[in-house]
Specification:
single chain, mainly alpha, 6 helices, Serine Threonine Protein Phosphatase 5, Tetratricopeptide repeat
């Protein structure tokens, strides 16, 4: 919990810090608080659609929850963002996860 409190304090000081918000979501996920993790990733992506790393994690979370159609939509959006950004690594990672889900 201490890490979460520190991250929340950092985020309160810099509400637009994507890295901190992404890290906070990952910490929530470690504690099996999937609702809080999802909320953080959705807030982050609503504010900044270009933060490509969060698409993979959010889609994987949705997959685990059995929300296949939502996961597919997130993967597809992430693929578009990664392609636009020229981020081949993120694109390939998203593509593999997407293909695994739809096959």
């Amino acid at each position: 919990m201490e890490r979460i409190e520190k991250l929340k304090a950092f985020l309160a000081q810099n509400p637009g810090d994507n890295f901190v918000q992404h890290a906070l979501a990952l910490e929530y996920l470690k504690l099996n608080d999937e609702a809080a993790a999802r909320d953080q990733w959705e807030q982050l992506l609503a504010r900044d659609e270009s933060y490509v790393g969060s698409y993979y994690h959010l889609a994987k979370l949705l997959e685990r929850q059995g929300k296949t159609e939502e996961a597919i939509a997130i993967y597809e959006k992430g693929l578009q963002v990664a392609k636009t950004a020229g981020d081949r690594h993120a694109y390939n990672e998203l593509q593999m996860a997407y293909e695994d889900l739809i096959d």
